[in-house]
Amino acid sequence: MCFFFCLVFDVFPGDIRGVSVCADSAGMIGHCQIYTFGHVGKGKATGKQVDVQFKCVPVRPGQLVFVTLKTIPNYCKAMWTQRHLVPECSHEGIRDEITECITGKLVYTVDKARNMLTVKVTDAPENTDYNLRLCHKRNVICAGEGAHRTIKPQYLESSITLHYSKPLPCLCIEGWPARVDAPRVQVCPFKNNLEELWSGITYDLNKEELIWEPLCPVKVSVSLCHADGGKSCQDLGNVFHSEGQKVIFSSVDPHPMLCTKFTTEVGAWIKCPFAKGNFSVWTAKITSKDGQQWAEISTWVKASFSISVCEMKPSPQCKPIEGNKFQTLSVDKMKHTVFNLSKSACEVCVCIKVQRVDVRFSVPVLQCDLQCSSWCRVPERSQDIEKILLPALIILTLILAAVLFGRMTIKDGDKKRTPWTKLRCLRMVCKPRRYNRHIMASSAF
């Protein structure tokens, strides 16, 4: 890249015959030029402006250049210095004009079924090899994924295929001319595909740690929540803000209803890492015998639990029953314990709420499998059944009433018939031809 300087200054009084101009920069050899003013009468150039054009100096885009001016002769070692920053390749004026700044353009198509990208290079520098690769972009640096592909100039019109493993938002196609310090161009086909980031969740059973390590740098808030079976998820506190750093939740009880919530500027996503698979380390169930009900808790790790009795009716939410305080039980590893229920539990729609309390993050578990109150297990369903059965019973009652009324009417009609009418009916069934002739003869009168 060639750079020109144009200096304008006032001539000082005295015997100044010219100036010396030098351009220096880190990493380059200094360039100096001397300019003389020619034969000018003494005092005639005083106060006049002089234009000096510096010849071409090789520089690089983004380079910082220092321009130094001295007079000839140099009085009292006087010197004037000014710095100048050469525009970057991103500058619109030189982006497509300077050879060092031309990167080429990338056009691509995506084949999701085969995890494949088809790339074509356009507007690349002539007579220069071109490099293509896939990389993961992290802030400024794009770390390469596999070896790059080199394309010869005569094959730049052909398409190149690149295979990827996951359609991550930071997965980019990078291209650059095959020369030293050549600028690079990047396009990211999946930049809006944030859904892929929330799959990298792991759980350390020994440390009871839930770990999420983002595969791409993203500004996100991460928290744990309790899924209620619908679309909502109740926050459990401790929100972590990440811009690409690893997030660790310590002291977590694995449970299918314990989920991770990710919130970005675009939206929110909820992922439940324990929903699939047998991750629970404890179970609770209701057992009965000879009319006695009790809750049985089994655990594979040493843990403490709180147990309370709550009522499902009339509200679908389980509310604590007055006078029934929760109890705390400690259970050793590979052991089980029981929690007896009173016989009055069958008189109301009660459930057992069990929650682990020796960890920071846990969710309550409801057990409503009382043998004597199975109709209370799922109040929402029972309410729906009532809504269906009540109209059905009313309609069935109306139908039965209509049938009984019809039968009574028929019987009353049978009682009012005369013997001749009955005989005529018999004749119509037994001797239809003679009866028809009789009717015809009668009609003649």
TrEMBL record:
Query: In which domain of life is the source organism classified?
Result: Eukaryota
What are the protein's GO molecular function terms? interleukin-17 receptor activity
Please provide an example of a Pfam family that matches this protein in its UniProt record: IL17_R_N
Question: How far does the signal peptide extend, from start to end residue?
Answer: 1-18
Key words, A-Z: Membrane, Signal, Transmembrane, Transmembrane helix
Domain Interleukin-17 receptor C/E N-terminal, by residue range, is: 46-346
Show the InterPro entries listed in the entry: IL-17_rcpt-like, IL-17_rcpt_C/E_N
State whether keyword Signal applies.
yes
Query: Does the record bear Transmembrane helix in its keywords?
Result: yes
Parts of the chain that traverse the membrane? 388-406
Q: What is this protein called?
A: Putative interleukin-17 receptor E-like
Q: What species is this protein from?
A: Sinocyclocheilus anshuiensis
Q: Which gene encodes it?
A: LOC107696274
